Amino acid sequence: MSRPFLALLAFAGLATAETPPPMALPATAVNEPGRPKITFSQCHVEGPYLALTFDDGPHGTNTPRLLDMLKQRKVKATFFVVGQCVAEYPEIAKRIIDEGHEIANHSWSHPQLTKLGEGSVTEQLGKTHDVVRQTTGVTMTLLRPPYGAFTPNQQAWAFRKWGYRCILWDVDPLDWKYRSAAHVKSEILGHAGPGSIVLSHDIHKSTIDAMPETIDALLARGLKFVTVSELLAMDRPKPPAPKATPAPKPAPPSESTAATLPTSTAKP
Fold this sequence. Notes:
five-stranded parallel sheet; alpha/beta; 9 helices; 11% strand; disordered C terminus; TIM Barrel; 268 residues; globular; three-stranded parallel sheet; disordered N terminus
């Protein structure tokens, strides 16, 4: 989903709509020294852990299929849900929580939040916050802004207002664009590793079709799946890069060596 042009979803038909790409903000946008880290695109972890994330659902048929696959493999994931879809499919939202997955805010109707005023952004996030809490009993702590677009001021504001940390990604199979299970699998396997936050969408059948082989291949590599909040809890500062060691200076010639050097016969 990370390409330089933007388009808005027509969310009257979200379940089948194509998701246009976001413009992801730098993960360090508001991560200032001495302040809590609130924006993440990946984590530095000491172990083989990564997080699968799914946006834009819940979907009436694709999300239950995905939940079956995850349950069979004892894999946990994080679902960034759209509020109006939670209102439409409350039982699926409840199932996400009941089966040990994490649920997080992806706005009410998927607008580009950077183009909205504070009142509209408050409504988009607040309505979703409330419907998830009323439906599942969970108070969400994570946000993924639609298209990854959220200004540094908005990130800091959402953290102050709801305690939301802003979650981006470092692996993007572009499954909204390439409706191919083989493509999704290849992209995820080619880029995912320890500390990765993998972006996908549970509204696309081709994405769900890719998941069994993708998950099985990652498990075979020894990788372990955790929720985003669990991954954030493992995040550690990266150790400083080692300083380059200067090359040793050549030793000056010894007296015995100097004595054997030829004497120039050239005239001055």
